[in-house]
Amino acid sequence: MTLENQVAFVTGAGRGIGKGVAIELAKSGADIVFTNRNKQFSDQTQAEIEALGRKCLPFQVDVADTDAVETMVGTALKQFKKIDILVNNAGITRDNIFLRMKREEWDQVIDVNLNGMFNVTKALIKGMVRQRYGRIVNITSVVGFTGNPGQVNYSASKSGIIGFTKSLAQELGSRNITCNAVAPGFIETDMTGELNEEQTSAILNQIPLGKMGSVDDIAQAVCFLVSNQANYITGTTLHVNGGMYG
Ligand code: NDP
Question: Which pTM was predicted?
Answer without folding.
Answer: 0.98
